[in-house]
Amino acid sequence: MPWWVDVAYVAGTVVVFVLFDLFGKWVDKL
After folding, report:
1. Tell me: the pLDDT tens digits for 6-22?
2. How far is CA 28 from CA 2, 10, 14, 16, 19, in A?
3. Where are the transmembrane segments (predicted)?
């Protein structure tokens, strides 16, 4: 597999984790 597949997978995982964390903080404010 090309190297960018691993980079995209790691970046996607980090983005999902950050979005989930921000969503959790947003829910706490409600």
Report:
1. 999 999 999 999 999 99
2. 40, 27, 21, 18, 14
3. 6-24
**Pair of tokens at residue 10:** 């790691």
CA gap 4, 22 in Å, rounded: 26
* DSSP for residue 12: H
pTM equals: 0.59
Please give the angle made by the CA atoms of 7, 17 and 13, to the nearest 5 degrees: 20
Helices (H) and strands (E) counted in the chain, each on its own, are 1, 0
Strand spans (E) along the chain: none
d(CA 4, CA 25): 31
